[in-house]
Task: inverse folding
């Protein structure tokens, strides 16, 4: 634990767990099972500590420099914060017909007149963990105790969002969740979210992550978010995440998806210039036969941004299919990491799994570390993986410029074309237009910036 002694946040975490255990409105009001789950996760976090580059999964992501600051830990007693309308406007999606909900620093402040269709139920985690029908989802800490930050979240979360879709229900519009993070002082926020899509139901969720500008006050926000998604037999979920939070935000996001028989899960993760640090961890467990997963990611990085995408597709049963395509565009001094693993168990015969990571490194000072992996213990499978790293095609640039297109415009067109394989798979036209506009807005205006 020598390393932890140099991190002020570690001591604050230990103190906060003590306050949560004994303070009013904390663990004292929770069930014995939930208190035991928190205690188990906390003990595991103390064993693991914060990760270093000596941990294989963090080899290319040095988290220690982002933890040197002192942080206050947001808790159940934290005062309610109203979102800045300017910040909310950053998450607006033109022409999108949807149900909308806003979470500020992980907490949902219910507004008057909010209504949702029959079969779609929304609760705060504070409400859900008191309900015997839902509390079991928070009493299972074993799944999250293998990971440094998920163990920390399982021990110290105070709120979040619980979404339940009744069996046979398909809401007529997507649910747009806007995550706003804002503070005038350094803050650690740890939301816990659960999504339960019951048998033969479907749900489309769009998450927008934005943040207030704390740079003037020197405030930094560290977000350690944990989401568990359960997709029951014959159910379907489309899940889009748009990360455009500000420079002083450090975002660590873990999503675990558990799929049952004949379910389908589609994930789109878009990370754009802004946050100092983004660590996306996506684990998809295909737990029963004939399940299907599609994972798409696009990261467009600038400045000195560090973005790390870690994925695990866990094929546990026969006759399942997964498809994964992540693409990155790296500008300026940015650093990108892709570490994807497809794990095929011995019983998972007739698995069909594809994984690909392609990167366009535009600046000579940008860096990409790509590590696609396959671990296969079955013999009747179709699995492939690959990775490419390249720069602009001189032939394509010459072709465009020979037709009177300026160099900056030509490079912008090539970036859009590179991203097309991801964006064209978005099924909602308004959302697809919004993503394409965000990409265009982030493409530098000068050839010098484009390398």
Result:
């Amino acid at each position: 634990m020598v390393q932890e002694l140099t991190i002020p946040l570690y001591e604050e975490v230990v103190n906060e767990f003590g306050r949560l255990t004994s303070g009013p409105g904390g663990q004292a009001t929770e069930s014995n099972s939930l208190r035991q789950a928190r205690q188990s996760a906390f003990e595991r976090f103390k064993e693991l500590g914060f990760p270093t580059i000596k941990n294989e999964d963090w080899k290319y992501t040095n988290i220690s420099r982002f933890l040197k600051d002192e942080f206050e830990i947001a808790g159940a007693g934290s005062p309610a914060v109203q979102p800045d309308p300017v910040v909310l406007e950053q998450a607006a999606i033109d022409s999108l017909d949807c149900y909308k909900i806003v979470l500020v620093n992980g907490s949902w402040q219910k507004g008057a007149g909010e209504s949702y269709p029959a079969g779609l139920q929304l609760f705060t985690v504070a409400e859900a963990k008191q309900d015997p029908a839902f509390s079991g989802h928070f009493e299972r800490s074993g799944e999250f105790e293998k990971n440094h930050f998920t163990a920390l979240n399982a021990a110290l979360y105070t709120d979040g969002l619980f979404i339940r879709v009744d069996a046979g229900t398909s809401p007529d519009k997507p649910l747009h969740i806007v995550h706003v993070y804002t503070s005038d002082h350094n803050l650690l926020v740890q939301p816990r979210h659960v999504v339960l899509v019951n048998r033969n139901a479907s749900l489309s969720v769009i998450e927008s992550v934005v943040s207030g500008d704390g740079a003037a006050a020197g405030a930094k926000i560290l977000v350690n978010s944990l989401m568990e998604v359960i997709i029951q037999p014959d159910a379907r979920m489309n899940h889009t995440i748009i990360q455009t939070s500000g420079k002083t935000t450090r975002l660590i996001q873990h999503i675990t998806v558990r799929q049952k028989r004949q379910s389908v899960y589609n994930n789109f993760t878009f990370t754009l210039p802004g946050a100092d640090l983004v660590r996306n961890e996506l684990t998809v467990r295909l737990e029963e036969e004939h399940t299907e997963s599609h994972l798409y990611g696009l990261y467009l990085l600038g400045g000195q941004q560090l973005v790390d995408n870690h994925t695990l597709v866990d094929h546990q049963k026969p006759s399942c299919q997964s498809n994964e395509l992540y693409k990155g565009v790296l500008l300026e001094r940015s650093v990108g990491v892709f570490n994807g693993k497809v794990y095929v168990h011995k019983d998972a015969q007739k698995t069909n799994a594809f994984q690909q990571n392609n990167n366009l490194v535009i600046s000579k000072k940008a860096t990409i570390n790509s590590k696609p992996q396959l671990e296969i213990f079955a013999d009747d499978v179709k699995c492939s993986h690959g990775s490419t790293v390249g720069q602009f095609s001189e032939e394509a640039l010459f072709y465009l410029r020979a037709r009177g297109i300026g160099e900056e415009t030509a490079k912008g067109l090539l970036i859009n074309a590179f991203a097309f394989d991801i964006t064209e798979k978005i099924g909602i036209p308004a959302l697809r237009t919004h993503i394409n506009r965000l990409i265009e807005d982030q493409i530098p205006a000068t050839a010098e910036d484009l390398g």
Observations:
- The longest helix spans residues 32-48.
- The CA atoms of residues 408 and 445 lie 7 Å apart.
- The chain has two domains: 2-288, 394-451.
- The mean pLDDT is 89.
